[in-house]
């Protein structure tokens, strides 16, 4: 798995935050190993420049799957070490796909998960602009399986509603965690409930695209 903080593993002790990749193992049996290379704050640019992508590629074997989800930080124009222009973003994703296929492995693209943002009238607001569209375009052009996490996450956030959706993200009261004495309000990153929900949406997407990964689903998940 290659991605940003929404996917990444988090510290377990005194920390309510989880990445959806961190909980993905709950949906699979023990015939498959999940390596989560996602890191907080990374874009396709910084993932490459820090050597994280090459490290991942060097480990690949024929038949492996690589789940790729970037965008949150690529679109952050105010943070130059992360920001990717649309042209660079598409170039980097093309490189990822080419490198994975060059190893005989199989890429799976994901669009970015939505943030929790509602306007004053309670209407949901997108924050990702054109970047998810670039991922969809590349998926079609290069015939790469796509799980549209943007659309899926928006649907469940809206279904949970303005108040109910808070439990998907980090709305922490003061005094609950020593690491967050003043509490926290974060509408980008996930609670354990939210991360598990997003991991489930990804698995739902795998079924929709008839991925070979479906045969590795856990019996408990299949029964649901």
Description:
The chain is an alpha/beta fold and 224 residues long. It has one domain (2-214): Rossmann fold (3-Layer(aba) Sandwich), CATH 3.40.50. The chain has helices at 44-49, 52-59, 86-102, 131-141, 149-164, 192-208, 219-223, and strands spanning 2-3, 65-69, 106-110, 146-147, 169-172, 184-190. It has a 4-stranded parallel β-sheet with strand order 1-2-3-4, with helices on both faces. The longest helix is centred in the middle third of the chain and has 17 residues, at 86-102. The model has no long low-confidence stretch (mean pLDDT 96).
Q: Could you tell me the number of beta strands?
A: 6
Task: Describe the largest sheet.
Answer: 4 strands, parallel
Query: What do we call the CATH homologous superfamily?
Result: SGNH hydrolase
Which secondary-structure class do the elements indicate? alpha/beta
Averaged pLDDT: 96
Element layout with pairings:
Elements lengths: L1 E2 L40 H6 L2 H8 L5 E5 L16 H17 L3 E5 L20 H11 L4 E2 L1 H16 L4 E4 L11 E7 L1 H17 L10 H5 L1
Parallel strand pairs: 1-2, 2-3, 3-4
Antiparallel strand pairs: 5-6
Structural features:
224 residues, alpha/beta, Rossmann fold, 4-stranded parallel sheet, 7 helices
Summarize the structure.
This protein has 224 residues and is of the alpha/beta class. The protein has helices at residues 44-49, 52-59, 86-102, 131-141, 149-164, 192-208, 219-223; strands spanning 2-3, 65-69, 106-110, 146-147, 169-172, 184-190.
């Amino acid at each position: 798995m290659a991605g940003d903080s929404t996917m990444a593993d988090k510290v377990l002790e005194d920390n309510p935050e989880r990445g959806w990749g961190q909980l993905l193992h709950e949906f699979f049996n023990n015939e498959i190993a999940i390596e989560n290379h996602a890191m907080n704050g990374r874009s396709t640019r910084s993932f490459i420049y820090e050597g994280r992508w090459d490290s991942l590629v060097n480990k690949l074997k024929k038949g492996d799957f690589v789940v790729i989800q970037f965008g949150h930080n690529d679109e952050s124009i105010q943070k130059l070490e992360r920001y990717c222009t649309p042209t660079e973003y598409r170039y980097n994703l093309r490189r990822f796909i080419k490198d994975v296929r060059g190893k005989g492995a199989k890429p799976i693209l994901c669009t970015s998960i939505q943030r929790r943002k509602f306007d004053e009238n309670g209407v949901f607001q997108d924050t990702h602009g054109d970047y998810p569209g670039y991922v969809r375009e590349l998926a079609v052009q290069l015939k790469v399986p796509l799980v549209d996490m943007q659309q899926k996450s928006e649907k469940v956030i809206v279904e949970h509603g303005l108040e109910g959706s808070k439990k998907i993200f980090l709305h922490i009261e003061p005094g609950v965690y020593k690491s967050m004495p003043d509490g926290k309000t974060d509408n980008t990153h996930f609670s354990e409930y939210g991360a598990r929900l997003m991991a489930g949406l990804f698995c739902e997407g795998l079924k929709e695209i008839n991925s070979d990964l479906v045969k590795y689903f856990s019996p408990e998940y299949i029964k649901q």
